[in-house]
Amino acid sequence: MFRLDLGPSASLRPLEIWHAEEFATHLDRAREHIRPWVGPAFVTDTVEGAAATITRYATSAAADGGRLYGIWVDDVLRGGVMFVSFSAAAGVCEIGCWLEPAAEGQGLVTPAVNALLDWALIERGLHRAEWRCRADNVRSAAVAQRVGMRFEATLRGAWLNGGVFHDKQVWAILREEHLALRAG
Ligand SMILES: CC(C)(COP(=O)(O)OP(=O)(O)OC[C@H]1O[C@@H](n2cnc3c(N)ncnc32)[C@H](O)[C@@H]1OP(=O)(O)O)[C@@H](O)C(=O)NCCC(=O)NCCS
């Protein structure tokens, strides 16, 4: 099975339909922590809801679109990263992430996002990878900055969540910028 080590006890693996119960259990630990920051469709509260999220990404992946990956620490699912969107034709993808509270502050997501950037921008040859977060999501913006993305814009009132229109930041990195960073 595909797995990429993120450290001594952490790994990145595809999050697939046979993980639905495990994903739902993880969401029980993560739900209120991620609710302000991620799309409502991702914040499910049943095994069926968790399975629907995985199925949505699997359908997208089958068309070379979005993809979903989990981060396991000591074989417990603690969060993940995803291609929110992925278009080889347009040369552009968007990357997202989430963690349950206990897994924050351990440097798990940054190497996982770098792995997705390597695959999208180097292996698949896409031109641009984007990151979109609520403008007050400091930890999310810090991830974008740590992987070398540049802050490009604030989209005013662009994201409706919890009945409020939130400002949204756009961060991005281009293929040549990522290659230069990887070359050191
Ligand atoms: C966004 C989110 C995934 C960021 O998590 P994170 O733990 O801050 O990010 P990383 O996993 O990359 O870890 C970096 C942190 O680990 C620390 N760290 C510890 N060991 C590290 C290591 N070996 N390498 C890098 N960082 C390390 C860093 O100092 C940093 O902590 P700090 O910001 O307190 O200084 C998390 O806050 C979250 O899930 N938020 C809610 C959901 C969300 O906002 N999703 C994004 C929607 S746009």
TrEMBL record:
Record flagged with keyword Kinase: no
SUPFAM superfamilies the record matches: Acyl-CoA N-acyltransferases (Nat)
InterPro entries documented for this protein: Acyl_CoA_acyltransferase, GNAT_dom, Ribosomal_N-acetyltransferase
GO molecular function annotations of the record: protein N-terminal-serine acetyltransferase activity; protein-N-terminal-alanine acetyltransferase activity
Tree of life domain: Bacteria
GO cellular component labels: cytoplasm
Keywords: Transferase
Listed PANTHER family: ACETYLTRANSFERASE (PTHR43441:SF10), RIBOSOMAL-PROTEIN-SERINE ACETYLTRANSFERASE (PTHR43441)
Annotated protein name in UniProt: GNAT family N-acetyltransferase
Species of provenance: Cnuibacter physcomitrellae
